[in-house]
């Protein structure tokens, strides 16, 4: 099926060749907002005034056996309207799964959606059969495959994902990963948080309970009927992958959602709060800052706690990245409104979330100068280079790694478990590069040291236009077949993915 569908995709792009050539102008900055790779799709429906809708908290699921039902639901996103989402348990974002290091958990996904799905735990140290290989389709309940031969490991109605959770505490997330259709599926709502906790974190006096707030940040556009407007070529999201060529750089929305609500507002104590930030957008990057300016104290990255906190004025967050930060609302008088803004945005896309500091409160929390032990990876002799760029494979347009579109049967990196390699990522436009199975450490950006927000264990790194980023990566425990790819989901769906083999 993959070969067929790949051919289908490339054929469509070729047919649209004239417009595709024009769309390339976006990357040159003609209709692309600064700091973004992508173009804005404007909503046809009126959007609410910012900071009128309360900030929701996703539901929480715990235990060692968890069932998630993927289903269609009508939810209120724009006040007074209903939007149809594809949700884990019918919610957007899905429930937050909470687990503990060393306590294996099985998540059973049941697919009641009209299309096949693939659940992936992003940041999970997961055996290959549970990782969400893009062709391991979970077919909808009651559906039997129409093709005689499909290459992946098919499941019918339900699939059990086994997560050993032999990894440190971290902010992970789960989302759909179906070959060629990840962008539209995530856009429709298939994303949620998955937190791993451990004793190291428990022992720290960090803000907790109501003062630990998960923030799933993304952007969406709405059509005249208040439905998500995604410019998919095939609205059934089953056969022809890809988006209208105009959005091939990336689909940017004009409505910012936090935990599924448009520009929400939250009432908080005048005290320290821990914010777990996830950029769940398909393509939009955020540069987050507080107004009035409050220091953003970063305590963790994709792969859990840093060794020591790092203070930022603003924080760039690319699609797929997580930042664990502490902000102290005790530094402003009660009654202050503190707004989290996006310095890369203008108008509505500059606004994100508002905190109303409504009451004085006792605060026993602190951010210690030492947070955790972070082993420093020491690279061995193996070096590889991955060039992420717009591609023409034959006469077709798409996105490639080392000049090649995704080939599930091939391998672009044969690695040995336990060995630390140096991987170099090079780009044309922005590409947030994500590696499955194990996190990495940033060694250098353009030959200089890591950037201010590159610290700790990362699994997604924002590689900016024309940059060269070197990382040290070491795979452990599980032999098999994984992927690494660009986390701009339009790029990913348009072939910017590579197979990594571990043995
Ligand atoms: Cu967040 Cu391969 O994905
Ligand atoms: Cu992942
Ligand atoms: Cu990309």
From TrEMBL:
It is an enzyme of class 1 (oxidoreductase). InterPro entries: Cu-oxidase-like_N, Cu-oxidase_2nd, Cu-oxidase_C, Cu-oxidase_fam, Cu_oxidase_Cu_BS, Cupredoxin, TAT_signal. Residues 1-23 form the signal peptide. It catalyses: 4 Cu(+) + O2 + 4 H(+) = 4 Cu(2+) + 2 H2O. Keywords: Metal-binding, Oxidoreductase, Signal. It comes from the Bacteria. SUPFAM superfamilies: Cupredoxins (SSF49503). Belongs to the multicopper oxidase family. Monomer. This is Multicopper oxidase CueO. It comes from Pseudonocardia xishanensis. The lineage of its organism: Bacteria, Bacillati, Actinomycetota, Actinomycetes, Pseudonocardiales.
